[in-house]
Amino acid sequence: MENRTISIAFIRNMLTGCGLSSSYCENLLRRAGVDPKAINSTQARVSPTQLSQLNKWITEATGDEAMGHYLRPQKYGTFNILARYMQTASNVQEALERNVSFYNLFDYGFRLTLLRRGDSVHYRIEAEYGVVLNNWVYEQLLMVNHRFLCWLTGSPIPLTRVNLNYQTPAHSGEYHYLFFSDTRFEQAHCEIIFDEKLLKLPVLRSNQELEEYLAKVPYEFLRSNTRASSYTEQIRLIIKKSLPLLPSYEELADTLGLAPQTLRRRLRQEGCDYRLIKNELIRDTAIGYLLHDNKEVKTISYVLGFSEPSAFIRSFKKWTGMTPKQYRDKHSDEVTEVTS
């Protein structure tokens, strides 16, 4: 049972402009266990696995790894070639230089640049003059290339900041899951920023490890060394183990061996805070129980630390737009094994 859900907006952005007919897309959504009628909802939730499965199917259907979002298609297998090219680099700097030069060979409607500003490195994406790119392009390129670099080095590459040059979306609170960093919108550029010292990290993965990784793409993109080591994820685990009791902020900081103000600063650097982490964990755990367990709503409410079922019902409706019973009834038929 997955312990995290994400906004359906990530699927909506991926589908927009993919070039497939609406009826075909609706069939794919149903196949993945997603209600097509919920695609424009501001509160509907999906799992990361459903997102990856749809990514795989759309790529296969279009023969385009960019799923129609670039100016020109990225032919199936292109990422594998890039990955093998980067894997033979000696360190992060060489791998990124190869990444940038590779992408810039193609007429995709954007250019990548690798810049140094003081002690920081900026990996930047800029649309070419007259080209309008879907926000999905920036998010996907920055996230995938960052996570692949983390995998190549076997080390988290913490980001100082993520800048995005478009308006703040309604689901902006979920971007910490993409980057585990302070993410800012309406900035001058789209880029990830990190300490230049990380450029010296060696590339460690073998040829065999790479081929095993590529066989699992795009599901491997869900994994992140940064995620596993982040304070966000550590706190999620602590809260989940503590339920139905909720640790105080001071107890949490003590468990992590940090002063409360230090923990607050670290979470801010990851673009998150304790309240958001707690609410996300309780919401996602509740969804997991409703979809994969036959516990009564009353029992679930107590397991999650609510003093009474009515408080749980109010919170759940605020998170998803439905009561727990409505959510279970609506999604019960969608919980089927996804076939490839």
Automatic annotation (TrEMBL):
Species of the source: Zhongshania antarctica
Domain of life: Bacteria
Keyword Transcription included in the entry's annotation: yes
Pfam families in the record: Arabinose_bd, HTH_18
InterPro entries: AraC-type_N, Homeodomain-like_sf, HTH_AraC, Tscrpt_reg_AraC-type_HTH
GO cellular component labels: cytosol
GO molecular function annotation: DNA-binding transcription factor activity; transcription cis-regulatory region binding
PANTHER family: HTH-TYPE TRANSCRIPTIONAL REGULATOR GADX, HTH-TYPE TRANSCRIPTIONAL REGULATOR VQSM
Stretches assigned to the HTH araC/xylS-type domain: 233-330
Protein name from the UniProt record: AraC-like DNA-binding protein
Coiled-coil regions, chain positions: none
Keywords assigned by UniProt, alphabetized: DNA-binding, Transcription, Transcription regulation
